[in-house]
Amino acid sequence: MQTQVLGNAQQVNQHNDHITIQTTQATAKIWVYAPAIIRVNLTQTPDKPDTSFAVIQQPESGIQFSEDDSEIVITTDALTLRVSKAPLRFSFYTPDGQALSEDDARFGVNWQNERVVNYRKLYADEKFIGLGEKTGDLNRRGTHYVNWNTDASKHTIHTDPLYKTFPFFIGLHSGLTYGLFFDNTNKSYFDFGATTDDEMSWFGADGGDMNYYFLGAQGVANIIKDYTWLTGRMEMPPLWSIGYQQCRYSYMSADEVLGIAEKFREHNIPADVIYCDIDYMDNYKIFTWNDEAFPDPKGLVDKLKALDFRTVCIVDPGIKVEEGYKQYDEGVAKNYFATYTNGDNYVANVWPGRCHFPNFFDDEVKEWWGAAFTALTEPGVEGFWNDMNEPAAWGQNIPYLVKFGDRYMAEVRNAYGMEMTKATYNGTRKILGNKRPFMLTRAAYCGTQRFSAVWTGDNTASDEHMLYGQRLVNSLGLVGMSFTGVDIGGYTGNPTPELMLRWNSLGVYIPMYRNHAEIGTAMREPWEWGEENMAIIRKDIELRYQLLPYIYSGFYESSQNGLPLSRTLAIEHIQDENVFDVRYQNQFIFGNSILVAPVESTKLIAEVYLPEGEWYRFGSDKAYEGGMAHSVPAPLNDLPVFVKAGGIVPMQSVIQSTNETGDGILYLHIWKGSEDSTFVYYEDDGVTYDNERGVFHKREISYYAETGKVTLAVAEGSYTSKFNTLKLIPHGFGKAVKEKEVTYGIGLIEIDLK
Ligand code: MIG
User: Fold this and answer.
1) What b/e string do you get for 612-636 counting C-beta neighbours within 10 Å, with b at 16 or more?
2) How far is the CA of 438 from the centre of ligand 1 (A)?
3) Distance of alpha carbon 367 from alpha carbon 564, whole angstroms
4) How far apart are CA 314 and CA 352, in angstroms?
5) Is 390 a catalytic site residue?
6) pLDDT band for position 490 (50/70/90)?
């Protein structure tokens, strides 16, 4: 093995937006992207083009630094980077000189053949959160992870890697916070003190540069804001996609799909979305329909529309090797597929049999792929589910030498799924014009939030999968992915009725609320569980629909500052050890004032930890004191959910789908608190991009604890709210304070609660 440890600085040069430092082993480059974001790149191939799949921002120009014999110092308003010259080591400090993160003096950055690794000092009390879709505990200290997008079917709650790669973590120590985004799509490794005597943490990759963005903002929320500034934020999703979604692998025919949709309406169970999994296709050929089972796609989608259902169809990257199949013929003729090193098209087996794989790293291939979606959009499909894009092939082991254009799979595998999804998004967005497409993907890399929701792949029908799945959702939220879901009920196996009830009730508070199941499992639609259970499931789904004004506003927040809808308690409470306690680590804040405690279906009493402050049980308004654990009832029809004192939660009447407007009343629930609180309420048409041109309705709602006043500021934007009446519903104020009803318009509204 050839090893090189980064040595002494030989030369320092200033350029417009960066400085370079030369050493024998590598060229170091440093840029400032924002006051709290400094990028460091250590490269052995300085002439290679500098590209990123994730980052959408440019560095600031006019970089400033100071230099003496021993170090180079870059100072911004928010962060100081001190680079020692002999040897070259990078250490970051707060403006007042507290150490945030320092290179290990011995190993620093080094190369082990092609592999590049950075060892950093581990602080005694340091905790680590992040990396997105990773099993394990909330606090990742003491563990090791690999990023290598994998079709992890049959995974356990310990399997690593899974489907997605997010080489971004947040470190917490000494009451300080920092983030580190290692922007490298090669197979990468993160070791949070698993192997180095609690002295070092390290991360690295099998190839590419030591290329990282150091985020020095204080507070986890601020780091997420900066990270999503750098890599982008989600758009407003189509409103219908945050309603209830019903899926199965597969509803085998148009009649079956329609029958399922009809049942929802018969049983008065709200729903918006139904899926077609791979069996809608002709022999799994992408962009085709099976003309026996799905003889009239447009007829089907139209009938579904008439029932207020939207249709989502799956697409896989594998293109069947079959002459006469359009995508195959065109792809071959134009060299659009991944190849062996001699240029022959690479073949692997997936659903259709022998397949080629589009080179989604090429813009022309992306265009071609995207334009083919007319096969789905012409019949009226508006949602697109990108599966198997790790990419997956039977046997998994796609050779590292397979090439996508001039790049080897080893270098870009982790971005393949994201680039496929980008192609699907760009293409369908173009075809659909002003209409928002819904996008779902299984594989992802940093930045995927800009155009898609994700789900966590093939989980299992068990309590432990339900709980760890929530942790995945919460952890995805830390890396900018707000629109996330799990297969409710568990993909593999059959849930017990208790598990189905419990998981469904948790689904109310999962950003994407989708019931999905594997082929061969028992049917699990809401009516499959008997009248009594169906009533409970219906109630929960109704609650989801009542909460949509709150949830949609939460997505607005994600689109503006990157904060996720499902927020691990660690975002707000970095110094509270209980938050990291494995007993409470699955709990999360949904939106900004609802705390949800996931509980096994076998436990009807739950131990819940409520952080600092006062809390009310959602539903009963029973008051609880924070900063301590409580034993609370957790029957299957009442998941432990709490609202923070001062919580402002706008709700609406029960509707059967987001196509309905309901009774025109905005039900504004407010829980008494001792501090002022605010909520940004947001509404738009839910289906077009007119919101990007000012057609929205947005206002700040404030609660003033001392005076008991509630105000709704003058509404911004040109959209007319669907509500004409405001009903203020006080909680925890005592019997004397009654509900108030006023006209809901765009002007200032002031209500006195006392
Ligand atoms: O090899 O399309 O994770 O959700 O139902 C399995 C069939 C392929 C895997 C996805 C799952 C989907 C299934 N797919």
Assistant:
1) ebbbbbbeeeeebebeeebebebeb
2) 18
3) 31
4) 14
5) yes
6) very high
The protein residue whose alpha carbon is closest to atom 2 in ligand 1 is 278
- As given in the structure block, the two tokens for residue 534 are 């169906």
Is-contact 671 646, C-beta < 8 A?
yes
Give dist(CA 14, CA 10) in Å, integer. 14
Q: Is 316 in the pocket of ligand 1 (CB under 6 A)?
A: no
Write out the two tokens for 135.
């099993």
* β-bridge partners, 742: 726
- Respond yes or no: is residue 458 known to be catalytic: yes
CA 669 to chain centre: 28
CA neighbor of 72 nearest in space, from 19, 109, 112, 125 = 19
Cβ of residue 457 lying under 6 Å from some atom of ligand 1: yes
d(CA 244, CA 735): 35
Does 397 have pLDDT greater than 90? no
Q: How far is the CA of 454 from the centre of ligand 1 (A)?
A: 14
- Does ligand 1 have an atom closer than 6 angstroms to the CB of 485? no
Give pLDDT tens digits for 701-714: 999 999 999 999 99
Structural element, H or E, at residue 128: strand 127-130
What is the rounded CA–CA span in Å between residue 242 and residue 429?
19
Block residue for tokens 């539903």: 619
- Note the pLDDT tens digit of each residue in 92-104: 999 999 999 999 9
Tell me the backbone φ, ψ of residue 333, rounded to 5 degrees: -60, -35
Q: Would you give the distance in Å from CA 284 to the centre of its chain?
A: 28
What separation in angstroms does the CA of 615 have from each of 154, 421, 593, 602, 624?
A: 39, 41, 10, 25, 5
Closest by CA position to 647, among listed 629, 627, 674, 666: 674
Residue 137, pLDDT > 80, answer: yes
Residue having the nearest C-alpha atom to atom 5 of ligand 1: 249
Q: State whether the beta carbon of 443 lies less than 6 angstroms from ligand 1.
A: no
Pick from 249, 313, 386, 460 the residue to mutate for probing ligand 1's pocket: most ligand atoms within 8 Å of its CB.
Answer: 249
User: Which is the catalytic residue, given 390, 540, 614, 683?
Assistant: 390
Whether 666 shows a pLDDT value over 90: the answer reads: yes
CA distances in angstroms from 508 to 253, 596, 638, listed in the order given = 29, 10, 12
390 lines ligand 1 (CB under 6 A): no
Residue recorded with tokens 């959702």: 473
Query: Where are any strands of DSSP class E within 374-463?
Result: 383-386, 403-404, 407-408, 438-441, 453-455
Residue among 387, 463, 518, 542 flagged as catalytic: 387
| Choice among 71, 458, 557, 683 that is catalytic | 458
The first and second tokens of residue 499, run together, are: 């598990």
Q: DSSP letters along 564-615, please?
A: -SEEEGGGT-TT-HHHHSTTTTT-EEETTTEEE----TT-SEEEEEE-SSEE
**Amino acid sitting at position 467:** L
Whether 393 is in the pocket of ligand 1, judged by its Cβ within 6 Å, is no
> 387 in ligand 1 pocket by Cβ < 6 Å?
yes
Write out pLDDT tens, residues 194-215: 987 899 999 999 999 999 999 9
Q: How far is the CA of 680 from the centre of ligand 1 (A)?
A: 38
Place of tokens 């209830």: 244
3-class SS at 534?
A: helix
Q: What pLDDT, on a 0 to 100 scale, did the predictor assign at position 421?
A: 98
Q: What is the DSSP string of 285-329?
A: -TT---TTTSS-HHHHHHHHHHTT-EEEEEE-SPEE--TT-HHHH
d(CA 473, ligand 1 centre) in Å: 19
Nearest-angstrom CA–CA distance, 232 and 477 = 14
Q: CA-to-CA distance for 323 and 332, rounded, in angstroms?
A: 10
